[in-house]
Amino acid sequence: MKPIASIDDLKAIARRRVPRMFYDYVDGGSWTEQTYRANSTDFDRIHLRQRVAVDVSDRDLTTTMIGQPVSMPVAIAPTGLTGMVHADGEICAARAAERFGVPFTLSTMSICSLEDVAAAVSTPIWFQLYVMRDRSFVAKLVERARVAGCAALVLTLDLQMVGQRHKDIHNGLSSPPKPTLRNLANLATKPRWCLGMLGTRRRSFGNLIGHVEGLNETVGLAKWTDSQFDPSLDWDDVRRIRDMWAGKLILKGILDPEDAVHAVDCGADAIIVSNHGGRQLDGALSSIAALPDIVAAVGGRTEVHLDGGIRSGQDVLKAVALGAKGVYIGRSMLYGLGALGEAGVTRSLEIIRKELFTTMGLCGVRSIAELGRDNLILRHPLD
Length: 383
What we know:
Shape: globular
Strand order of the largest sheet: 4-11-10-9-8-7-6-5
Helix content: 40-55%
Strand content: 5-15%
Radius of gyration: 20 Å
Structural class: alpha/beta
Number of strands: 12
């Protein structure tokens, strides 16, 4: 195997090793995938300001996110079905994040349960919450997060209904995979993945099975989940969850300055500028394009984070220079996980850290705290 130098290298390996339906789940967006693509390509429109003759021999990547010290301004994003990309995937990713000194966020729609992941690490994890129609279940999830010692609750606001994702429909996505001839033929080409799944008991949504009354089989689980996303979610619901949760509250899915102001008024400790990885409203702004106006609207009253399109350390630098306190990696982590398991998650973090460290030096920047718009050229001189 050739040396792994970039996130794209991990992506190529993951594509070979992960079953088609789960790889496509990771590597796809809604409808035409316009916003999914823009999340990455819009970073290319931002140029870096090269500086020379600056002593950058002692560079520091450390900072904080919601007051928590981090080794670099990066957290692991909440991603559903992580445990179907690789056996016990959420536990693998949480362990890698802990060793690296960055936060790990567990999705409500994880395969490994909240309790299993929290028990696998000594550093408190963050937990992402969906507001479902069954509000008593939502309250139970919040309490479970408290009991598990989670350091933050990440409330996702942009999944009141599910955007149509053509690849998932074509593949008949399910967890575990349905035993169709097409799926079985594809699984036969993924022996590493199959052996890993045979060695674990975690193959369905661990936060739901055993916690929802009468829900204990896959078909019933899929129907229940599809019926639970709640289009009635409003800011009053957000305030109720703020009252329910005494710890740090992060609101995810903010893409409009007016919504950012509402989030501040609801008492958010941080907001995440995010379009759900281009998996919801196709045609929406990319996260990096939306970031500057949201930073301006918030005016320093709460932290602003960014999720979507981060594939390199240079992307991290650009987002922080535009006002993000930190960023989240979802697909970059999942490519590493699918490629090499826990070691692959570590490798994805190493790649991003090395790129960030080197780019800071070439820009004449010594620390994360120094980054700002002066490090960027937002309009090409030839335009």
